[in-house]
Design brief:
With 103 residues, the chain is mainly alpha-helical. It is built from 6 helices and no strands.
């Protein structure tokens, strides 16, 4: 049972562990609050997977799984919530906006 719980915990964290950590993304996340870093990771990942052009059933399934894993269906609302939460913080809003342009 403990192994199962540990496995599920790791799987839930996997998207942020395996996020795109290019120097550009690392720079955007530097010194940001955890919620901002997660939205930046998700924004970049969603851009990447939305840009895929799958040609086989397997590729389509993989892309759809990644879009679900990264919760791409709610990323726009989550970005808007961050913009509202940090409405007086130009740096945070700027970094989230720059993340939209990656991929």
């Amino acid at each position: 049972m403990l192994k199962k719980i540990l496995f599920l915990s790791v799987m839930l964290m996997a998207p942020w562990i395996f996020a795109d950590d290019t120097p550009e993304v690392k720079a955007l996340k530097k010194d940001m609050p955890a919620d901002v870093m997660q939205v930046i990771d998700r924004t970049v990942a969603c851009n990447r997977w939305r840009g895929e052009e799958p040609t086989t059933k397997g590729q389509i399934e993989r892309v759809n799984k990644q879009l679900t894993t990264w919760r791409c269906d709610t990323i726009d609302a989550d970005q808007a919530a961050l913009a509202k939460r940090y409405q007086n913080n130009y740096d945070i809003k700027s970094r989230v906006q720059k993340a939209k342009d990656i991929f």
